[in-house]
Structures are given as structure tokens and as C-alpha cells.
Write a structure and sequence with these properties.
This protein has a single domain, classed as NAD(P)-binding Rossmann-like Domain (Rossmann fold, 3-Layer(aba) Sandwich), CATH 3.40.50.720. It is α/β, with parallel strands linked by helices. The radius of gyration is 16 Å and the shape is elongated. It contains 4 helices and 3 strands, in the order αβαβααβ. A 3-stranded parallel sheet has the order 1-2-3, sandwiched between helices.
Amino acid sequence: PAAVAALVRTARPALLRSARGRVVAVSSFVAHRYRADAPFAATAAAKAALESLAKTAAAELAPHGVSVNCVAPGYTRKDAGPTPENAPVWARAAEATPLGRVADPADVAELIAFLLSDAARHITGQTIHVDGGLTLG
């Protein structure tokens, strides 16, 4: 969260000059899905703080036409995919996701691109999940 705060603070003059200032931070489902068997307490706390920071920045920058949002991905493929060694982990992640699959990086990137576009000009202060329903319950 401190790095994002510093980036927003540094970028503030450019954001205010821009005809379309946008900030999109990347959070995580772990800030919204609490499980005793998942050792993500520090990550969950950091991502929740990031989301709170984004809401504060959204409130401060909205009068200047700048939007600030978060994207919270679920399980997302970050490398080549399953190997014989990690295939069971990938399978469990897909099974835990109501849509039945792990996200591709493009699933997350497309939401970020939308939030950076004119079509999202009236969206600010939001955390939008792209998690295949993982945080439904």
C-alpha cells in the first residue's frame, strides 16, 4: 500500500492535468475470502489496506475528474500452467472457483483496460472482482 500511495502522490500533478486521469490498483481475492487453512493473513491485510487507500484516493481525486479503482483477481495463471508437480494445486484452484477454471491473465487485463477507458469514466472507488465467483461465499 505504501508504494501505491507514493505513486499516486507522485503522479497527482499529471493526473490533475490529464483530461482522463485514471488509477487502477491490483488487489486480491484473499482480502475478501477468509479461510483458516489458507495462510494468507499478511497478504489479506495488505490488500485490504490497498483497497482502503484506493477509496480514500478516489474521494480526494474525484472532484478533479480522476477515478481510482481496484481489481481483485481470483486464482490466475501466472506462468505456463500446470506441470506434473503442481497439477493438483491447479485442479483444486479450478474446483474452488464456481466458473470452474483458473483465470487467464487476459481476463484481468481486459478489466483493467476497461477501467482505464472512457467507458468507465463514472466508476470510482470500487473494488471489482474478476475471480470466477470465488468470493461468492
